[in-house]
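User: Second chain of the day. Same drill as before.
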Amino acid sequence: MISLHKVKEWKKPIILLFSLSSAHIGSFVYLAAINVLVYKVTDGSAAAVAGLWVISPIINIITKLWTGSFIDYRSKKKIVMITYVLRALLIVTMFFATNITSLYLILIVVSVGQSFFVPASITYTTMIVPYEKRKRFNTFRSVTSSSAFIIGPAIAGVLIFLTSVEVTLLLTSLFFVIAAVFICFLPDVDKKKTEIPRLTVNRVKEDFISVFTFLKKEKYVSFVYLGYLFLMIIAYVMDAQEVAFIQTVVGLSETDYSFLLSITGIGSVAGAFVLTIIANRLSIRSMIACGMFMMAIGYVFYSLSSSFTAVMSSFILLGFFNSFLNAGALTFYQNNIPVEMMGRVTSIFQLLQSMLQVSYLSVIMLMTNLIPLKNIIISLSLLLFVFTCFYVVVIFRHSFQR
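Assistant: Same format as last time:
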């Protein structure tokens, strides 16, 4: 029987989980709907839809230079709430967008809001959820985010079919309003500052120096999280070529591809549910190592696939162990980055990630004109596998037990 004390202990984390889950479902509904809207407004331009992949990394590169310095000295709760409300309002304005220019301008502002939201929400979550509950909380969060991967596009598909893409976007804004309402019931845990430093070039420069000094001192923490980001970057590059690989190399149809995405989501939900059961028996290092190693194997299987069954097996493997990796990496990050500088550290990591994503994706797109796509995907997957083997050995070294 669950004691009243336990319920009280989990009250704030559960409210936060509802808020994040509502926003996560809204993000997937929005993503599906905006792709359809851009395609509709541009009379079927594939290039315009592809441009959606580029906006967010570019905005990240521009804004992440200073967002961390802004976030760390201000109320994280207020920033999260404002970004929720702003996203809801901007999505409503898309209902009135009549051309691709106005739509892209709104998307740029949405991406700016998102660049504030991610570092602020990670920091606020770390402040709200106690140290001893973070691993458990992140496993539950993994379940909700994995479920949103399936539920979000399904809701979007039903709403678009029953109404229109414009009405779907209007209804999507409600998810972010609900997320903001949940945040209202949580405390503002930032310590009251007598003076908030002005956001100047010198302030940003000093913050960068303090972050790099910390990362240089904590080499193991830097290595573990940078290794995780390396997998995310390689996965992003391969995922961007996923449709082309599956249709031109493997020879599957668009219907097959849609079904495979659903299978991945189901695998991710299954992995998240299993993780909630066994999380207390696994160390954080084990979650990261197991997730990363099995995902690397999944990408190797995917790159060598020549049939629907082979691709499906690799997608299930990727989806299942993605939950282990993400929950482990997030918990490790929250436990080892000081909360007072977490906004700045997160922003710098995301700046680095976005720069490498844009650079690698540009190089790969140029290489596809010279080298067969299958050879590129195989090379990337093998590179990831070799790096993962080295990575797992290093993080389990006895000297890093602490």
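The chain has a mean pLDDT of 86.

User: Great, on to the next one.
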